Amino acid sequence: MKLIVGLGNPETVYDGSRHNLGFFILDSYANANKLQFRSKTRFNAMVAELSTAKEKTLLIKPTTFYNLSGEAVQAITNFYKIPARNVLIVHDEIMLPIGTFRTRLGGSDAGNNGIKSISQHITPNTARIRIGIKQPLRDQIDDKNFVLGQLTTEEKEVIGQLLPAISEAIDTFINGSFAPTTRVQRPIIDS
Fold first, then answer.
1. Where residue 184 falls among pLDDT bands split at 50, 70, 90?
2. CA–CA separation, 159 vs 93, rounded Å?
3. How far, CA to CA in Å, does 169 sit from each of 34, 105, 141, 151, 172?
4. Are 58 and 76 in contact (CB under 8 A)?
5. Phi and psi at residue 51, in whole multiples of 5°?
6. How far does CA 109 lie from the centroid of its chain?
7. Which of 133, 137, 147, 139 is nearest to 95 (CA)?
8. Considering only CA atoms, which of 20, 32, 30, 7 is closest in space to residue 159?
9. Where are the domains of the chain?
10. CATH class of 2-184
């Protein structure tokens, strides 16, 4: 069994924020695959199930809030006995420019409190899709207000252009061929 975790905050006030990109990506992936999220209070998460010929994959959006995501991830990995190598985290990355995403295996949390929580609750040795959100506005606003701020129209366009490649990276994780790489699209916003 595999687990794909999108990071974000559960309240609707955070919909469309930079910090909710993980939720947005999983919602897009679920819609493309005709999957529905259902509330699983025992796991503090919204969960969708994808079954392939090889195995089942759970997509989750923790309802613990971003900085406590590790609680939901630990609950699910413990219950289903999912090893860390079968966990993929999809999240925003303040240090990567908008229009860029990177796949990686393990590594530091780089100051991301959601990743820090997951590392503390299970291990830092998970797969990750890091979606860049850095743009010129980031230097004018403190980190908290920037990540909790709403995506601009231009940022939404850039993320929309990345969706097919990000979905392909999710598919490679599911089929077992996930590898660290850098993918760059032509940015609309100069950083």
1. low
2. 13
3. 18, 13, 31, 23, 5
4. yes
5. -110, 130
6. 13
7. 133
8. 20
9. 2-184
10. alpha beta
Q: Which whole number is the average pLDDT over 39-66?
A: 95
What digits encode the pLDDT tens for the residues 99-137? 899 999 988 888 899 999 999 999 999 999 999 999 877
pTM of the model: 0.92
In this structure, what are the phi and psi dihedrals at residue 19, rounded to the nearest 5 degrees?
A: -70, -15
Q: What gap in Å lies between CA 123 and CA 3, rounded to an integer? A: 14
> Catalytic annotation on 121?
no
List 2, 18, 19, 61, catalytic entry: 19
Write out the two tokens for 56: 């089942």
Q: pLDDT band at residue 44, thresholds of 50, 70 and 90?
A: very high
Q: pLDDT band at residue 188, thresholds of 50, 70 and 90?
A: very low
Element (H, E) at 48: strand 45-51
Please spell the DSSP secondary structure of 26-47, one letter per residue.
HHHHHHHTT---EEEGGGTEEE
pLDDT above 60 (res 12):
yes
Using alpha carbons, select from 67, 159, 176, 168 the residue that is nearest to residue 113: 67
